Structures are given as C-alpha cells and as structure tokens.
C-alpha cells in the first residue's frame, strides 16, 4: 500500500504523471478563456475548474442545476451519468452573497464510490443561477463486471474482526487480569454499505465498522475496514475516531447511537436560559448559560443560541457528566445512564471547575459563536444541530489524557498527574468541534494526507477560536501553541503538543507511515499543512485568512484530497474572495515555504537499496531466507488483487511470479529459499499454498475458514497464526507438507492462546498463554518439535507482563519480553538455547541499550528489532524503526537505517542483511541493507 499520502494517492496511484484532458470536440466542452482547469489524476474529469461565469440552464433545486450543468458540459467534465441516481446529492450549503455549493456523490451502478465527490459552485440572484466553478474527485475509469458481492456479510464481519484483532495483537501477548479468561470477545462488527474503492477500474468491497475495546490496553476501538467483496481479504482499514493527541493504537468505539432524548420539556414553568457563572481552570470567572426544568432542577444545557421568537426550535449545547466512565463506553455510543451535569445553584462550585465542566460548556458556546459570527454557520452541521460534550472519561479507571470527536459528540478525558482535564484548553474544544464541522463539509477521510489535512484544519480553527475567546494576539510568541494549557507543572511551550508557528516544519519533514501508526500520519504530518495556513494568517490577517480557509473547506475540498489538492483549494478560494495579487502571493508563498507544491513527494530521500518500488499492498509483509525474498505485489494503480513474487535479496535479476492471478488475494508470503508459502483468500475460505522455488506447481497444503496471519516456512513444515472466532483467540497451526500432518501447537483447547510463530529445522517456536495448575493464566515461550511432538519451555518468568514475537535459529530462540509495568513501555529481548538453557538478555528492558521492542527477526549472525516508541504526540522517532544487535547483545543495538518513514515487517536473510517495507517516500517500497547504518 502507499503510506502517509492522502487516500486518493493510495487508491488512485498518485505519483503517476497526470494525463491532460483530451481536447473536446463538442462546443459544450469549450471553457471560457478567463477560467482555469486543473486536470484530475487518473480520470478525465478535472479536479478543479475556476473562473467560470456560465448560466445554469436547468431549473429546480440547486442540485438539479448542478447536475444540469455537468450534463450540458459533458465534453469538459466527461461525466456520462448525471441522474440523481448516479450523482446523489450529498449536501447543499449556502453562504453570504447568494453562494451555493452542491456536493454530488458518485455512484457506480448504484453503489457508492469512496471519496467520489464532485462539487459545483454557483451564485443565485433574482432566481437565476450562475456556475462559478467546480472541483473534486470523479472517477471515470471505473469498470466493474458486477457489483454483487461473493463474500457474505457474515464472512466479511468475521474477516474484519480478525483483521482488527491481528493489528491490535501484533505486538505483545498479555495475560488477562487474575480471575478472568483470555479471549473474551472485545470486538463486534457492523456491516455498512457495499462500496467501490476507486483503485484503477474499481475494487468492490464490503464496508465493516469494527468496534469495542482493545484487549491489550483497554482503549476504545472503532476501525473502518473494507473487505474485498470477491475474496474476503481486508484491503484497507483505518481508525474512525478523531483525537486531539495521537494514540499508539487504533482507537474508536462501539456502534454510533443517538443521544439520550432531550428531556427538557416545553412546560411553561421551564426556564430555558438561566444565567450562571463558574471558574475556568485558568482562574477566570465566566458566565455560563444553564436550563431549569419544570421541577426546578438546573442542568448544563445552553438554549441561548435560539431565536427569541422560536424558543423551542434551534441549537442546543449540552454538557454531560461522564466522570469515571470508560472511554470505550463513551465513543460512538452513550454510556448507560449518563446525564447532564446538574448543579445545585447557578454559581458553579469548585467541583465543576476541576471536572472540566465549566471549560467545556463555556468553550462550546464560544466555538458556536465563532462559526456563526464569522461564517454565518448554524452549529457544527450547519443546520442548528445539537452540540454534545461528555466530560471526564477514564481509561481502565486511570486518567485518559486525550479528547476526541466520534462523529456525533465531543469526549474529553479526565486528565491526571501531569495533565489537567482535556477540556481545560479552549483550543482543544475548538479542535474537536471543528472536526465536527469538517465532517459536515469536506468530510476529509481520517487517514494519510487527507487525515493530516483534517487535523491541520482542526488545529487551525481550534487555535483561531482560542485566541479570539481569550483575547490573545497573533503577535504573542505562544499564539501557535496547541494544548499549552493542559499541563499541571510544565510551561506552555514545554506542554504544547504542537506548534503551528514553529516556522520549520516542511514537506521534507514528512513521515511515511502505514495506517497502523497514527492512521497514516494524521498528527505526524498535520503541521506541514497547518503551518502553511498559520503563516498565511499571520501575513494576511486573521479575518481574511479565516474566510479563505473556511471557503476552501466548505466549497472546494472533497474527502480524498491530499496536500497538493488542499493547496489548490486554498488558492482558488482566495481568488474567489477577491484577494489582491499581493495577497495571493502571500498565500502561495506560505505553501511554498512549507514545501507543498506539485511533486513534493519526489524530494524525500533514503539510505537503503530499493528492491521493489510501489508494491501497492496493504496489511501483508515480506518474508526472506536462503538469499530469497517473497512478497505480495499489486499492479501500478493498486487495483489488481495481490499476487506473490519471488526474488533475490541481493536485488540481482528479475522477480518471478509465484502465485496465479486468479482474482484472489495472495498474501502473507514467506520463504526459506527453497519453498514459497502464502495464504490465498477467496470467497470460499483461506487456502495455505506452497510452491518450490526451483519450479513446479503450487499446491494447497491446508485450508481454513477464518482469518490467518504470520506464515513461516522451513523445510517440510509451514506454520501460521489462525484466528478462532468462536473463542476470540488465536492459535498456531502447523502442517508437515511431506506427510500431510496438520496440528495445533496448543491442541486448540478453549481459551488457550498461541501466536507469533517462527520455524527452523522442523522446530516451531511460539508465544503462548495457558492456565497453570491453579487455573491462573501464564505467559510463556515454547518450542514444539514437529517430528517427535516434544515441547520445550523457554525460561520466561511467571511474573512477566507480556511476551512478543519469536525467532528461532540453528542454536537458539529469541523473543520479546516485558517485565516492568512502571516503565515507559520498554521491552527486553531475551535468548536461550534450543533446550532452554543459557538464558541471555540481548537488550535490557531498562538502562543503556534498552529499546521499545515491538517485534524481531533473526539470522544466525544478528537480531533485528522493530521498535515503536509510545508518545502523547507523534514524531519521527516514535515510528516503527529497525535496530540490529549481535545475538549475545555485545556492542549494543544500532539503527539499521536512518530513513524517516516507517520501517515495517522486517525480515532477516543471511548474515546481517534485512529486508523491510519502508514508507519514507510516501509509497510502500521493499528495501534492504546489508549492515546497520549506526547512529542517526
């Protein structure tokens, strides 16, 4: 897969040269000389047309007029199907001056196309409409034989849950709390609509939302998973929850439901607006609006935004007491029994300050006023929708130092220790509520570049609102800080999670990362774009800059836009709003200074040897051994189901196709240099395939109905991790390809868990979780001899917290081990002989040479360790990186590569050579190094 870029780049193979729109033959294709047309990528439909002044001939609604314009100018737009069925209305917004923007959703044979939105901008005067421009993504190359899925909804849900479980459990296996059983079902799936992903000629998928709780750390989960509708393979997944600070794992929650019914009656005895007051966290006393019901009870509900002549219609701002409620129970759903804060008197006491209720309620009103006063926007949805805030959630009873928008409401963590409650800073409230505005306008998909733009715009307006509400000047050196007021002891500059005014973050700082990390860099890379916007605000002035950014968001941007499209949208909006040449120069200069210009991705450099570029794959890694590598690969635009390729790890020679191009997804490829194995996903199940390196036919060596991962092979044996949907656990399954024997390393007993296997000379190493004689579950590392069935325990202390990936070599076993619950997340790497003797600490859990070990791979000469550094905010160093160390640990670990992007799926070959999938360039490239780079 392509990493870190906008999903448009992922799905439409951005980076290819854009082909100019063919010259039209009909008169309707002519475009006025005063207009500008920007071609679309891999589509005949232009991505941006500005400067039009064409009468909309079609009558009726604004949407009818928009569709009529596209039909009349077919030669320009190349949109053949313009009926309401094919171009559904996704929303119409009106702004001052009679401006109308119609969003049209592309459908293919009645099936929605992800990100396929096209906008038509018009002005209406004296009942007549004039088209001023268009923009968006309309995919003209789609050509699917059928839009009927082969994979059932039930199977798609099972595969999606398995895929999310694999991602969440990809690091350490941890024991459950005493008295609890492992494998408790923490996740559930809900099927959405069948969706076309606009890759090449189109990929038909089932959209599944997987929600629940991460069993590893208790965090909420809401993953949007797209399952190929013909094979059942998860071709894409990303988190659907939008947080203020990045989190180390996928976040989200359970199915979205409606808010509790508004229990405010319309009894004449009600007082819709009661003036109250409270003290914010910073000590300022502020006015807050409350509501008193017919029983005389006060509630933190603000009805003051309603018109005097319509007191029972219009917006409502409500703040709920969610103290002590788990974040997972508050994301996407409403915690059972949650109620509004109910103060005893209009003068709110210290408890309302400490809980963050005063700040959340007061700031929500300020955000509403900002959007109403500056843009005449009625609430987050533009339609006077209710505004809900839940205050005080926790994470497994501990402080939850974050805040998020879950698609319907704001949720603020309780805070604790070094952090105040996360509603204590107005820019956090403004940030989360702006996510709501983005949802109801451009709806920028929360992954990759589009997600980074979503974050950037939330940061921009969150900070703008903060400055206005608190009377802070743009000239203040701390004006660009976000989250600076959240800390209990640190100074604002030390506390801030991001700084829009750092003056340094450019596209050269772009960090390529898969969707498993920060949703493809939504926080990591956001300041590249937000920094450009903030520079523009400093030089243009707040009012004009804010109007430009809002207009770009509401009338130009579409869900899959990346940085380049975002730049074009802002410049076009500035022109539309009458910016002078000098002002336009400021706008373009701001983006240029941050390196955002067409083709900026080409400037990203690496220190590795590229074996295969743009493999265009997702959720499947690379295997290596005996001087050979095996990897899945799609075609240039990423639309073709994955096939398996074999090549030399030296990079010499041409790779060889090993699997059939049979319409299935052939994934999780691995090799020992003699045999290649992979999993073939089809509508009928998953087949484990094997083929000799020297030639011959591929054959089915095993088959299973559920999700699989982590295939390994050596000699006659292949092993892999299989997801057991009945118990919600994983088990290592192995096959003797010579005899046909199939088995489970743990016998498949209920609630026993095994996973993360490695294999050498018929011996399979794996991590396990099983009950001891007292029924308490214990973690361990075990080696099974496939020939004899004998099992050997490795020396793992019963008190360990977690055990991770194994790697077995000719004379030893390596594994990741976490012993300390009080450290910052470091984990050790251990080694023992095959018989369990001579235990060695390769890298310690604490002190010099310690690492945040996540996974590992090993040859007889070296151990390569993947690290993920947990952090409140993301930086280059927090991405998955590869370190290498000698098998005995002597000399300490060294960085394998200094590449800035994510270094995922490390695979050891011979000697010190390691291959991995690298995201530095914005694409997923298969790269290698023969020795460590040392220090970076």
Low-confidence segments: 1-29, 248-257
| Continuous helix count | 15
Q: Count the E strands.
A: 53
Judging by the overall fold, what is the CATH architecture of the domain at 794-936?
6 Propeller
Mean model confidence by pLDDT: 87
CATH fold naming of the domain at 794-936: Neuraminidase
Helix content: 10-25%
Report what the structure shows.
Among the domains are: 13-136; 153-239, Nuclear Transport Factor 2, Chain: A (Roll); 794-936, TolB, C-terminal domain (Neuraminidase), CATH 2.120.10.30. The protein is 18% helix and 33% strand. Strands 1, 2, 3, 4, 5, 6, 7, 9, 10, 11 and 12 form an eleven-stranded mixed beta sheet that branches. Strands 13, 17, 18, 19, 20, 21, 22 and 23 form an eight-stranded mixed beta sheet that branches. The chain is globular, with a radius of gyration of 28 Å. Mean pLDDT is 87; it is low at 1-29 and 248-257.
Descriptive terms for the model:
8-stranded mixed sheet; 18% helix; Nuclear Transport Factor 2, Chain: A; alpha+beta; single chain; 15 helices; 53 strands; 936 residues
Q: What's the quick description here?
A:
The protein is α+β, with helices and mostly antiparallel strands and 936 residues long.
